[in-house]
């Protein structure tokens, strides 16, 4: 029974986990903006979430595109390397504009995922209240 | 909670950038230093950054943790020849009447300073955002 109650939180919590992972990855890119030879990394959030939620039993199953193979990696999402619009002389591929945009975008989406979770928790708490309670 | 790692990552960046600012300050302070009796003047220094893995553990040949920080690996001295000025009356002049100044290029150093301070600000902003997000995560489920 309790699994039915918390099952609805599985998918947003996985999304939150991946968002914090991505936040950390972008923080690493920003930290290494001046390191010679550093190659910026990122991952495709949608496919990472699809792979992560495909593994769980209770969570929502997202529709999987026909062309995509399974192959979920246990130790985190598959990291990809960024290409630059303008090459720099020291081989660093961190594009600060892009990284900052991704950082803000990811922070905002992290916060909205948190709000979804809070909303689910609130509706569960409302359902638990007796009818004569305010 | 992987979010806490952001503070280590950005903290290492802030430390590295402040060391870079330190080196710039020392270069600018010595921009007009003349050569001593040994004939060599101050040489401009430059820190070299290096990526450092935050977690040494590995799983299947690749690091378990995607977070990477930054550190200053070495501080190198520029080998460019110093500026030589003909000034026989100068107390630091050599036998030919030339004074050797340090090889610091103030324009280069100012550019370096602005770049370091911008990167520093970026890392601080990253930490602030992470702190806000963590604070909101701590309030999860509360009214």
Describe what this molecule looks like in 3D.
The complex is a heterodimer of chains A (about 130) and B (about 140). By secondary structure, chain A is mainly α. Chain A has a domain at about 1-40 and about 80-130. Helix content of chain A is about 55%, strand content about 5%. Chain A is built from 3 helices and 2 strands; from the N terminus they run αβαβα. In chain A, strands 1-2 form a two-stranded antiparallel sheet. In chain A, helix 1 (about 1-30) runs antiparallel to helix 2 (about 45-55) and helix 1 packs antiparallel against helix 3. The longest helix of chain A has about 35 residues, at about 95-130. The radius of gyration of chain A is 19 Å and the shape is elongated. Chain B is α+β, with helices and mostly antiparallel strands and about 140 residues long. Chain B has one domain (about 1-140). Chain B has helices spanning about 5-30, 105-140, and strands at about 45-55, 60, 60-65, 70-75, 85, 100. Chain B is elongated and about 80 Å long. The chains are: A mainly alpha (about 130), B alpha+beta (about 140). Chains A and B meet through helix 1 and helix 3 of A and helix 1, strand 1, strand 4 and helix 2 of B.
């Amino acid at each position: 029974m309790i699994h039915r109650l918390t099952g609805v939180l599985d998918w947003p919590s996985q999304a939150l986990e991946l968002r914090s992972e991505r936040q950390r990855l972008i923080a690493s890119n920003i930290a290494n903006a001046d390191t010679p030879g550093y190659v910026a990394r990122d991952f495709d959030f949608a496919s990472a979430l699809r792979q992560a939620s495909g593994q769980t039993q209770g969570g929502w199953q997202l529709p999987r595109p026909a062309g995509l193979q399974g192959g979920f990696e246990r130790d985190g999402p598959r990291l990809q390397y960024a290409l630059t619009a303008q090459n720099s002389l020291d081989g660093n591929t961190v594009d600060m504009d892009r990284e900052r945009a991704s950082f803000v975008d990811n922070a905002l989406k992290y916060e909205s995922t948190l709000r979804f979770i809070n909303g689910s928790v609130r509706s569960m708490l409302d359902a638990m209240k007796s009818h004569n309670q305010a | 909670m992987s979010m806490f790692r952001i503070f280590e990552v950005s903290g290492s960046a802030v430390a590295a950038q402040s060391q870079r600012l330190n080196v710039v300050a020392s270069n600018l302070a010595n921009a007009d230093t003349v050569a001593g009796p040994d004939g060599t003047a101050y040489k401009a220094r430059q820190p070299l950054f290096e990526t450092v893995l935050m977690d040494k553990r590995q799983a299947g040949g690749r690091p378990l943790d995607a977070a990477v920080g930054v550190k200053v690996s070495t501080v190198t001295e520029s080998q460019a020849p110093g500026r030589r000025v003909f000034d026989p009356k100068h107390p630091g002049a050599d036998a030919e009447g030339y004074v050797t100044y340090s090889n610091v290029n103030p324009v280069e150093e100012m550019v370096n300073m602005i770049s370091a301070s911008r990167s520093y600000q970026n890392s601080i902003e990253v930490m602030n955002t992470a702190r806000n997000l963590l604070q909101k995560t701590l309030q999860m489920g509360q009214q």
